[in-house]
Every structure is written in C-alpha cells, then in structure tokens.
C-alpha cells in the first residue's frame, strides 16, 4: 500500500504551491471524493439506466432511447443520476477551492521564485499584456477553475492549474501530471524509431505538464510550448527551469501562431482540441500543416470521437459538457477529424492508441507493490478525460515529404 500511495503523490518543484497540514487534508479529501464518485457512484448509472430510466423513456415515447441525447432525457429525472451529477460538480469546485487558500498564502513567494528561475533560464519566454485570448477560453471558467486559464496575474492561475489538475486526475497522470505527453513520446519512439524531430511544438500547453517529456525523449531537439494564457506560460517557463529543462514557452494562438512555414518537425497537443470551437479546430489543423516541415508529424491526444463509443458511454462523457463548463466537449467528438486533416493536406490521417506510460512503468518496475500494479492495470475507460483505459487516443497525420 505504501508504494501505491507514494506513486500517486505529486512531485515537488520550486514553484509548486506547498499546502500546510490542514490545506493538504482538504485537498486530499477533494481528490478522494473525486475517486469515490468514479469508483462508487459512476458504476451505478448503468444499472439505473437499464432497470428504470430506459423503461420510463420507452413508455413515454413509444420507442427505446436512440442516442446519447435520448439517454440524457431518460436519466435527467432520476434521483440517482441527480446525486451523481450534483456530487461530481461539487467535487470539481471543491478541488479548486481547496487549493486557493494555499496559493493566496504563498503567491508572493511563488512569484518571486518564478521570476528568478525564468531569469536564469536560457530558454525563450514570451508574453504580452496586449495579447487577446480567444473568447472560447475567456467566456467561462473552463473545468470550473475560478477565473479561468487566462485570468489576469503573474503566475497565480498557473499555480492553481498545476496543483488542481493533479487532484482532478486523482494522481493517475503521474507525479508530474505528464502522462499524456510521456505516453505520446514513448509511442513515437516505439512506433517510429527513426523519427528524430529537431523542432517540436506543443500547442495549448498550459503549464507544460505534457511538454517536458518531449525534451527528455529528444534532448537535442528545440521544444516550444504555446498557449493563449499568459499566467500559464510564465508559470510553465519557471516550472521547466525548476525541473532542470530548457524549454521555451510563448504566448501564441494555435489558430495563427506567427511562426514561419515549415518551422517544426513534430506538432503535438494534449486535450487541446475540445477546449476550442467549431471554427477554431479546423484552423488549428490547417495551421499544423503549414507549420510542419515535409515529412513532419501532427499528433493530437484527446478522447476518441463518439462514433467509436456506444451511446451510453457517449452520454457519460457528455456530462462534462453539461456540468463541467466544457461547451465544446461533446460537439468536438461529432466532428470528422479525419476529414479535417485530409482537407488540410495531411497524408493518411488516422486514430491510434498511445499506451499509458504510468501503466507501463508500473508493470516494469519491481519496486511497485503487486497491489499498486494491479490497481493501475484495472483502470477502465468510464468517464472523464482522466479516467482512460490502457491508453490515450491520438489523431496522427503526416505532411507529405
């Protein structure tokens, strides 16, 4: 049990908020409540739907529910679903609330350390007070994060995101919240052993959780992360420096980055596309094609499209749209991403699965207890972006050589 608990503790670095005893207890409660919802409440939705909600719908409409929208209509009046949805929303808000006190207490120190780390780093940092973030980011507090990703300030929103995402992910993204980037980097090295990118771009990088594994995997490459949120970029730059990695972070919009044609050999993103919009997403795909050198690769990691899921799973996932301030979550999964990539000029776009690095690590590391390894191995794809099965879904495409 000790090894499993240690596995799921967040790794330290110089700008990470440090909770005191009471704050840590509240944060652990918020994380545990999220875990209880996933393991204790969520599994009950299927039996509730089959045993009563679907029957009520069929009696009222003279037919069985046809899609996720019908399933939602059937489930909305059910008290069990209301308990699940309400508790899930409360848990999400508690996660952020449990971290805010720590940040408010330590913000001057975090800001000072961030400035010092960034000043000593040779990697580029670029933000601008005149930069205007797109409305799909600023119109609401995505993931219920107070103030949103792009809230005004030096690095406070980045600190909140860093600690909050670890709690939201219930530790399953690894000690540095980097499992998506690490999984995709491992996937590239495994499936494309001769591919050695010299310039790598991570779009929508927030605090650089998934950016840094590419510098570790390809140490000779120049790695750049971009995001529309200045506080995230500044925090990301300091965090990378504090972890000993020279990675550049620039405040840019993935729809129109300002880089020259053919600037990168590899472009990646991690849960970016569902945070955009119906107009922005095709523009981002086109921008990727413009930015890639001949033979370069585009890899976007996100949840799979709805047509790869059964309607009930679609309904479960779509609760993020309705209850977690994710307006494009469901709509994005109905878009034909393969067609978008083809229209942008990509060769043979396809979906594939990048196995979760943390699961591979657990299976290979003898220091893990059998219980810890078994816990990871039994993860099932049920709901939420941080509750996958054995891997992350990736859209991968190549620019013609």
Overall, the morphology is globular
Number of strands: 8
| CATH topology title | Rossmann fold
Structural classification:
alpha/beta
Describe this structure in words.
The chain is α/β, with parallel strands linked by helices and 401 residues long. The chain has one domain (1-401): Vaccinia Virus protein VP39 (Rossmann fold), CATH 3.40.50.150. The protein has helices at residues 2-7, 21-41, 45-61, 68-75, 79-120, 135-138, 156-168, 179-191, 212-217, 230-242, 280-291, 311-323, 329-332, 337-344, 357-364, 370-377; strands at residues 125-126, 199-203, 222-227, 248-251, 264-270, 292-302, 347-355, 391-398. It has an eight-stranded mixed beta sheet. Strand 5 (264-270), helix 11 and strand 6 form a beta-alpha-beta unit. The chain is globular and about 65 Å long.
Attribute tags:
401 residues; 16 helices; alpha/beta; eight-stranded mixed β-sheet; 8 strands
């Amino acid at each position: 049990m000790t090894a499993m608990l240690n596995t799921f503790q967040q790794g330290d670095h110089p700008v990470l908020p440090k909770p005191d005893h009471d704050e840590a207890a509240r944060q652990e409660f918020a994380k545990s409540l999220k875990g209880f919802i996933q393991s204790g409440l969520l599994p009950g939705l299927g039996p509730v739907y089959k045993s009563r909600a679907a029957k009520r719908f069929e009696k009222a409409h003279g037919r069985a529910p046809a899609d996720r929208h019908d399933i939602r209509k059937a489930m909305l009046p059910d008290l069990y679903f209301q308990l699940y949805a309400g508790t899930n929303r409360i848990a999400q808000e508690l996660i952020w609330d449990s971290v805010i006190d720590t940040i408010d207490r330590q913000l001057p120190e975090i800001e000072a350390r961030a400035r010092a780390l960034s000043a000593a780093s040779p990697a580029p940092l670029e933000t601008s007070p005149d930069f205007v973030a797109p409305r799909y980011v600023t119109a609401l507090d995505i993931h219920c994060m107070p103030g949103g990703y792009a809230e005004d300030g030096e690095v406070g929103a980045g600190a909140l995101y860093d600690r909050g995402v670890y709690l939201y992910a219930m530790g399953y993204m690894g000690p540095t919240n980097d499992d998506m980037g690490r999984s995709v980097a491992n996937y590239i090295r495994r499936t494309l052993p001769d591919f050695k990118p010299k310039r790598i771009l991570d779009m929508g990088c927030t605090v650089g959780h998934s950016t840094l594994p590419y510098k570790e995997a390809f140490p000779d490459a120049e790695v750049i992360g971009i995001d529309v949120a200045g506080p995230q970029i500044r925090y990301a730059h300091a965090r990378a420096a504090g972890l000993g990695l020279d990675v550049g972070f620039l405040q840019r919009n993935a729809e129109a980055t300002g880089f020259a044609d053919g600037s990168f050999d590899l472009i990646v993103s991690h849960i970016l596309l569902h945070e955009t919009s119906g107009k922005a997403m095709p523009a981002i795909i086109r921008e990727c094609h413009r930015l890639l050198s001949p033979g370069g690769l585009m890899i976007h990691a996100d949840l799979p499209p709805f047509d790869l899921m059964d309607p009930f799973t679609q309904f479960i996932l779509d609760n993020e749209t309705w209850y977690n301030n994710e307006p494009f979550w469901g709509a994005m999964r109905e878009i034909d991403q393969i067609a978008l990539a083809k229209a942008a000029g990509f060769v043979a776009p396809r979906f594939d699965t990048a196995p979760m690095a943390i699961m591979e690590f657990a299976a290979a590391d003898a220091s893990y207890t059998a219980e810890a390894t078994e816990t990871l191995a039994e993860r099932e794809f049920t709901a939420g972006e941080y509750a996958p099965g054995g891997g992350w879904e990736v859209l991968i495409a190549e620019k013609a050589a």
